[in-house]
Queue: 3 jobs
Job 1
Amino acid sequence: MDHLSFREKLKELVSGEVLFDEPMNRHTSIGVGGKADALLFPKKREELGQIIARLRQDGISYLPVGNCTNLIVRDGGFRGVLISLRDLREKGIRPDESGGVCLHAEAGVPLSEIVNLSVEESLTGMEFCAGIPGSVGGGVRMNAGAYGREMKDIVKSITLINGTGRARSVDRGKLRFAYRNLDLPEDAVVVRAEFLLQKGSKEQVRSKVKEIVAMRKEKHPLQYRSAGSIFKNPGTVPAGRLIEEAGLKGSRIGDAMVSEEHGNFIVNAGTARAGDIIALIERVEELVFLKRGIRLEREVKIIGEEE
Ligand SMILES: Cc1cc2nc3c(=O)[nH]c(=O)nc-3n(C[C@H](O)[C@H](O)[C@H](O)COP(=O)(O)OP(=O)(O)OC[C@H]3O[C@@H](n4cnc5c(N)ncnc54)[C@H](O)[C@@H]3O)c2cc1C
């Protein structure tokens, strides 16, 4: 398809914003990334199915993104279409047949918003999401977690759109969650999730959330831009400790720096490029392997082309 018709077709399909040649350093929480051919912000779940079906038909690659808080886009950018779910923001609660309460939210709802809703409604179960800067879609896809709990503990069902553009609901029992991952087909987009929570005491839920936010402020280098934990924790020793013991805290390539506060955070200390961050990730991997014989596995998602 030629350049012009590709752009026109996308504009026809999407009711929300459509950005072309969009620098992704404006969108990733770590502030790096080259240009995406297109970045779309659909506003309705229904149009998402059509967009995906058309992209697939035309052989254009696409990837769903949420708040881009676990994402590094290489400096050469992304060839294809990034579909941001940011503007799908419906949420609510209803009684669940089990006696609990079902909180439902579309993919673009920030996790902070559903944590706030759970506090307002005195619902317990979601406190661990406090302070995780992702969206519902990204959180479910990553099986986001903290302080011993993760999405898999509260997801009741999700709605997916597959490569043909059809939506279907999948119950928790059929979902294969793993550590920081939900096993989904490459082309599946999470558009909505239902969480099963329990009625609790508003004061207790609120104070748990406060406690978690305070712990995070103390441990995480929140004054810098980052993508959260770069590596998964291998077995029982946290990745951050292995990195610290390898003497890597404060290690720098350009403006990419291993945080002095938390070894598993690589921060953008100024105007780092994706290349600097990735080179530093590789240095950490090499040195931890040399010193401890452990191969760190990446939690952060790296997409796009080399420059
Ligand atoms: C300061 C900081 C602290 C963090 N703390 C934590 C933490 O405690 N625990 C934790 O688990 N994570 C943490 N993270 C990482 C991140 O916030 C989570 O992984 C979050 O769930 C990612 O959500 P997102 O919307 O930003 O996803 P994105 O970064 O946009 O995407 C992440 C991945 O999910 C896919 N994806 C996104 N949306 C969808 C969708 N709708 N359907 C299908 N696939 C999708 C993307 O293609 C990509 O592969 C932290 C990040 C930061 C910056």
Job 2
Amino acid sequence: MKPIEELKTEHRAIETSLKILGAICDRVEEENLLASPEHIDGLIEFFSVFADRCHHSKEETQLFPALEARGVERENGPIGVMLTEHEAGRAFVRDMAVSMGQFREGNTEALMRLVHNARSYIDLLANHIQKEDNVLFPMANDRISDEEAIRMAAEFDRIEKEKIGEGRHEEFHSMLERLGEFYVRA
Ligand SMILES: [Fe+2]
Ligand SMILES: [Fe+2]
């Protein structure tokens, strides 16, 4: 797959995960309880491994440097904004994990903090994906040569194996499929 197409496909999976997270937040607010904490654990794992460690690594170590080398600005420019948003996303995921720990220890207020951080994460990432799909990726398609795209695709394969490992990608997709069935299409 072409590298930009690959990133876009990953965006669709991330959007699905955000929809599921939003639906879980709705239920928590309606029922004032978290019926299946393991579903949130699975999503947190997806956000940190698939979205951050893998997808954001591909962008940060390959795509952004390639764009910077072709004149797209980092400081005060689109790349700087994307990097700041990746960092903000990491903080929200860390906070969600902390809230889950507190919830398990019996702290009931932790649930509302979890929902608050989850909603902030959903807004941040949904907007971030829009900007990349509609602004940054078209810029990349205009500027990156076929040769560079082939090199980048090979680097993406390497990152995929290193950061996620064989078979894990499929596991994440089937988890999203399962949770999507349960929360979104129900
Ligand atoms: Fe990004
Ligand atoms: Fe992205």
Job 3
Amino acid sequence: MFTIQSMQPTQHQEVAQLIHDSTNGWYLNQLGQELFTGGPQSTMLFCDVYETLDPGCCLIAVADHDQMILGSCFYHPRETHIALGIMNVHPSAFGQGVARQLLQRVIDVADEQQKAIRLVSSAMNLDSFSLYTKAGFVPRQMFQDMVLDVPLQGIGFGDLSGVEIRDAREEDLPAMADLEYRVAHIRREKDYRFFVAANAGMSRQQDRPHWHTSVLYRQGEMQGWMVSIVHAGSQMVGPAIARDESVALSLLQHELNYRAGNRMVFLVPVECQKLVQTAYAWGAKNCELHVAQVRGAFRPYQGVCMPTFMPETG
Ligand SMILES: CC(C)(COP(=O)(O)OP(=O)(O)OC[C@H]1O[C@@H](n2cnc3c(N)ncnc32)[C@H](O)[C@@H]1OP(=O)(O)O)[C@@H](O)C(=O)NCCC(=O)NCCS
């Protein structure tokens, strides 16, 4: 028996440990290798980022007999939808309905607010895939996760004539939000404000932030933007939104070069052949498959959406 509660600040460390043990346990058992190699301290990133963005929006399942945290689930209410973040159950409690009950609480919130729920789940993890489809989510878009060791000298640039790529600034935020609304039909300006504030932090602190955001303009009109993160708990490019594949490609080259010398993972929509083939030419390999799942209204993308896991998009 367990009770569902909101995570308290004193429980961050235990939840970080749970995320680490649950995810690594599952990956080691099913796929033969751990996902988080930086220890439980690295998965504090999820508590830190998610609680900064959405205080009080982490649900935990606590065992009635010894108060052990059996499961955790982060969610992010946004203007157009609710995004579901990382969901974890302790391996000792798998298959007992912990995740289903945590999910049901988020569904209740979404139904009350009359919003869709969106998430990105691994297509190689039938436990999580099924958890969501059984609860009424519909897989809408497949992504291939590609991993690339970005050479120290970077990767060559294609033709960037006529476009301006630069670090995002606060004044770009409305255009970033409008573009995502046109391409993916969701709005979540708060998330970009967080990423872009990290850009500003870099110039003040004279060192590299975890986050970096680039924007691409053509003839004064925003065509795309892309975020990346480098941290012990996550080395990813994304989220990104682009009007078309060539914009996404220019941004991806730019962002990967910014992260030269790092091993980066990025999620490419499977039908974006130009992106996929160029990534192969750079030496990228497939490492997993993810699927955007939506419970509620969904309109097909009108452009390129490259999601990530923090905060989840898709
Ligand atoms: C994925 C995970 C959260 C599931 O947690 P759980 O508490 O074991 O899941 P539940 O017991 O609530 O089961 C969820 C539902 O999926 C169903 N299900 C599981 N596998 C299924 C399958 N192959 N086909 C159909 N349904 C399936 C279960 O029957 C259950 O539905 P029910 O309650 O109506 O019977 C857990 O395995 C986990 O933490 N894994 C490691 C981390 C991870 O992968 N997180 C998700 C990605 S962010």
